[in-house]
C-alpha cells in the first residue's frame, strides 16, 4: 500500500535530518535526500533555546547538543557607547524548563551527529549528491525527480517533507509563494579565537549590542567567538568579506594593536518571509523552506526544529493508522502562526532595537530595556518570550513531545 511507503525528506540540513531521525525513531522507513556530498560546514545557527532542549530530550538530540555545546545562562543587551544596559539570567525561569540556559553549538555538529544515527538505523537511508529538481504527486503517493552523478532518477514515497532551505526547489515546484521581504544589507559573520572576555570584562557569552551606525552581536561558541555585524548597502558582498573589511569591523568593535586572527568568515543575505501555505497535497514545508528570518534572537533553526517535531508526530500517527489524514491539517494551523507572529515578529523587532537611529527613540529603547531588566516580573515575561516558551505554549507544543 503506497500510503504506508517510506516517507521522503528533501534536504539534509539540521531540520531535514532531524525530521528523518524522528520518523526513523517512530519506526517509519525514511529516505533523506541531500544535494551535497556530506555535512555542510557553515556558521549559521549556534543558539538552541531552553524549550528546544526540553522538547528534544526523548530523541537523544538534547544529549548530543549538551555534549558538544556551551551552556550560557546569562545574556546581555548592550549599547556600543553606554556598555551594558540589561542582563538576563535564565536561572529565573528554571521553574519553566529543565535547561535554563541558551546552548551554543554550531548547527553542523548536530547534523554530523544525526547523519551518524541515520546511517546506523535500519529504517533510514541517506542519499547524498541527489539534487531534487521536480515533484509530482497523486492521491496516495509523491515522487521526486533528482539529478545525481549517475544521471536523473525518480524516488517515490507516501509523503514528502521539504526541508531544502530558504531557496527551496520543492516550494517553487509546488507553486507556493514565499511572502515577505529581503533586507537591503548583508550580515557579515567573523569567527576568531581572540579572547574578548579578557579585554571586555563585563561581557558574557551572548551579547547584543545596539548602535545607530554599526550594531553587533558577540557570541561565544565552544571553539571561538563569533561576531555578526551589518554591512552598509554601499559595500558589495565580495568587498565585505575581504580581510580589510573584516579587520575594520573587528577593530571598530574593539580596537587592538595588530590584526585579529580570523578563523571563519561568511556573508548572508537576510529576509523575513513565510510560505503562503505549509502543505500541498502530500508535501509539507518545514524549516527555512517554510520561513526565514534574521538571526537576531536565534530563532530560525529552533523554529524549524519545532516544525519537524510537530509535523513528524502527526505523520507518525497517520502512517501507523492511529489517526486519519485530517490530523495533518493541524500542522500548518499550529506552526504557521508561530512563524508569522512570534519568530518573524520578534526577530524583526530585535533588529529595529539594535539599529535604531533616531536619538530620542533610541534613548527610549535603552530606558525601556533597563526598566524591564530591573523588574523581576517583566524580566521573566521578557525571557519567556525571547526563549520561545510563550509562543510554544500558545501553540500547544510545550509538554507535547509527540514522537
Ligand atoms: C548568520 C546566521 C546565524 C544564525 N543563527 C541562528 C541561531 O543561532 N539559532 C537559530 O535557531 N537559527 C539561526 N539561524 C538560522 C538557521 O541557520 C536556519 O534557520 C537553519 O539553517 C535552517 O535549517 P534547514 O535545515 O531548514 O535549512 P538549511 O540549513 O538551509 O539546509 C537545507 C539543506 O537542503 C539541501 N538542499 C537544498 N536544495 C536541495 C535540493 N534541491 N535537493 C536536495 N537537497 C537540497 C542543502 O544542501 C542543505 O543541506 C542563523 C542564520 C544565519 C544566516
Explain the overall architecture.
By secondary structure, this protein is of the alpha+beta class. The protein has a domain of 227 residues: FAD/NAD(P)-binding domain (3-Layer(bba) Sandwich). Helix content is 36%, strand content 27%. It has 13 helices and 20 strands. The strands form four sheets. Strands 6-5-14-15-16-13-17-20 form an eight-stranded mixed sheet, with helices on both faces. A hairpin with a 5-residue loop joins strand 10 and strand 11. Helix 1 packs parallel to helix 4, helix 3 crosses helix 4 and helix 9 packs antiparallel against helix 10. The longest helix is centred in the C-terminal third of the chain and has 27 residues. The chain binds flavin-adenine dinucleotide (FAD). Flavin-adenine dinucleotide (FAD) binds next to helix 1, strand 9, strand 13 and helix 9. Flavin-adenine dinucleotide binds next to helix 1, strand 9, strand 13 and helix 9.
